[in-house]
Design a protein that fits this description.
Layout lengths: L1 E9 L2 E7 L4 E6 L5 H11 L15 E9 L4 H9 L7 E9 L4 E5 L2 E3 L1 H11 E4 L13 H9 L2 H33 L1 H13 L6 H13 L1 H17 L4 H18 L4 H27 L4 H21 L3 H67 L6 E7 L8 E3 L2 E3 L8 E7 L7 E2 L6 H14 L8 E4 L8 H14 L4 E5 L3 H4 L4 E10 L2 E8 L2 H13 L5 H15 L1
Parallel strand pairs: 3-15, 3-16, 8-14, 14-15
Antiparallel strand pairs: 1-2, 1-4, 4-5, 5-6, 6-7, 9-12, 10-11, 12-13, 16-17
């Protein structure tokens, strides 16, 4: 609910705070007293365009602050969280306007954009009398209102879930086709590279192995000479190491027979003999195995050169060439499997489109049934509100599209986020006139009554908690005015309502009556807003009946109107 509105240095208002009733607040005052200033202040704090002309002359800054309580809106919470604005039990909207034309906006004392302030305000307050805030005039709200009335939450959810799955599949298909196209575009290159890499029969570690073998073949003579010399030193030479260690072992054994201290070194000498023996056997074997093979060396050199040229051509190492071959193999295999995968997803998309079409049809049928009831309900409300010949139509159309995702009656239609219906409210308030979109209804008072009728019909389901009606009494009187007042009072039991009126029949219905007056203080014109007690309220209603000269009969009639409103 809108708890209070603080205004400072705005137009004729010096400074005031207005508190509102959670049900029906009535605002009255003479023409020019400043009622429109209140609406202008509300517009400003709801994010409308600001003009420095509105700053009270002689001051530097105007401030308007609205405090709202018991705000329960997931969309509001989402908007504030996205803007890093803390949420609280109260929601405070503030607008500051400098005499230089600069404007600052705040939500919960956190700076924000005018656009965010406007988005937030439109979710909270529905202001009738100014086209900018008549949310029901905008066709994009009609679907939500009809769905609320038709109780289609389950059907809308089923449709949205299927549409989400369908969109996921379509994205998968798009990605696969893109990959397939990319592979097809490069197929010749892939095939050529794969053929070239397969022909060379790449092996992991081959490069290092070739290099090692080439080194051995190139140094075969040197290796043979050195290993032969080593073998002579170890075993075959006249003074070989093996002969010397054998003689040393015999000597140590003789010494140990006399002095036991040599016992410890006998094993060491035997180990040394064994090591030399093993080394000499390896050397003999190595020497005999040395390969003097110039043909093999030439073959290896050619293979090495072949690999080097390929590495240079592709700008990759030997290991990276093997990785490239594996990648090309995978792409080649993917190309073979892509068609099957594309076909599978296409079949699933067809099934999902069929499922989506069924959900869309079910949802549309439920909407159409509810639309018929809503049309009757609103036309009955309009008749009570003094527009007896009104025709109200809920237009539900579909958009044909050759690539549409909804199948119906051998045609295809566009799948919108919440169904395949285009929903718009149309109205004609005079006989013989063709129903037109609500936004094209000309009369301000007529629009307000249309809005009141719609709100009354949608009262149980509409989610906007705060309704503000300006000019709702334009062009009505008598019984119609009484009907309008009763509708406002009844509706205020479900939604907070603020109504500006000149009619006593409507004013008498209020739970709170605010009087707007203009006076001159210290040679400056000032607008003030005063909440009226019971006695002053009767005076105000009586003045609406008889003018400035309040008579006893007008007071009596005012009392009767108030009493009747309480019944």
């Amino acid at each position: 609910m809108l708890f209070s509105l603080y205004i400072k240095n705005f137009a004729l208002i010096q400074e005031l705070t207005v508190e509102f009733n959670p049900r029906l607040t009535i605002i009255t005052g003479e023409t020019g007293a400043g009622k429109s200033i209140l609406i202008g202040a509300l517009n400003l704090v709801l994010g409308e365009r600001a003009s420095s002309d509105l700053v009270r002359s002689g001051t530097t800054k105007a401030v308007i602050e609205a405090i709202l309580k018991e705000v329960h809106s997931e969309k509001i919470e989402s908007l504030l969280q996205a803007a890093n604005i803390e949420t609280a039990s109260e929601l405070i909207l503030r607008r500051e306007l400098s005499s230089g034309g600069q404007s600052r906006c705040f939500i919960n004392d956190t700076p924000c954009t005018a656009a965010l302030l406007k988005q937030t305000g439109e979710e909270l307050i529905d202001l009738h009398g100014q086209h900018e805030h008549q949310l029901l005039l905008h066709a994009n709200t009609h679907e939500t209102l009809l769905d609320d009335y038709a109780l289609t939450t389950e059907e809308v959810t089923a449709y949205k879930n299927t549409r989400s799955l369908l969109q996921g599949l379509q994205q998968q298909l798009k990605t696969l086709k893109k990959e397939a196209a990319a592979i097809r575009d490069k197929k010749e290159i892939i095939d050529f590279q794969l053929k070239e890499l397969n022909s060379i029969e790449l092996k992991s570690g081959e490069e290092a192995s070739i290099e090692t073998e080439i080194t051995l073949l190139e140094n075969a003579e040197t290796l043979f000479t050195l290993s032969s010399t080593l073998n002579d030193l170890l075993y075959d030479g006249e003074h070989s190491l093996y002969s010397a260690i054998t003689a040393a072992l015999h000597t140590i054994e003789k010494l140990a027979a006399i002095d036991k201290r040599f016992d410890l070194h006998i094993e060491e000498a035997r180990t040394a003999k064994s090591i030399v023996d093993e080394l000499s056997r390896f050397t003999r074997s190595y020497t005999s195995g040395i390969d003097f093979n110039p043909d093999r060396l030439e073959t290896l050199r050619e293979r090495q050169l072949q690999l080097q040229r390929l590495c240079k051509k592709y700008g990759r190492t030997h290991t990276e060439l093997i990785e490239l071959k594996n990648e090309l193999d995978a792409k080649s295999l993917l190309e073979e499997n892509l068609e099957d995968e594309v076909s599978r997803i296409e079949q699933e998309i067809t099934l999902r489109k069929t499922e989506l079409s069924l959900h869309a049809e079910t949802l549309s049928n439920k909407r159409q049934n509810a639309a018929s009831r809503l049309e009757t309900a609103i036309q009955e409300q309009l008749a009570e509100l003094g527009i007896p010949n009104a025709t109200f139509i809920v237009s539900i159309t579909h958009e044909e599209h050759p690539d549409g995702e909804i199948f119906s009656d051998s045609k295809t239609y566009t799948a919108f986020p919440s169904g395949y219906d285009n929903i718009e409210f149309l109205i004609s308030t005079n006989p013989g006139e063709k129903p037109r979109p609500l936004i094209k209804v000309a009369s301000g008072g007529e629009i307000s009554r249309v809005m009141l009728a719609m709100k009354s019909a949608l009262a149980e389901s509409a989610k906007l908690p705060i309704l503000i009606f300006d000019e709702i009494d334009s062009g009505i009187s008598g019984r119609v005015a009484e009907s309008v007042g009763k509708s406002l009072r009844k509706l205020s039991r479900l939604h907070q309502i603020i109504a500006i009126t000149h009619l006593p029949q409507i004013a008498a219905m209020g739970d709170l009556h605010l009087s707007v007056k203009k006076s001159v203080q210290q040679e400056r014109t000032v607008t003030e807003v005063t909440p009226l007690d019971d006695e002053n309220r009767l005076q105000a209603i009586a003045s609406l009946i008889s003018g400035e000269q309040i008579s006893a009969s007008s007071l009596t009639l005012a009392a009767e109107l108030v009493e009747a409103a309480r019944e």
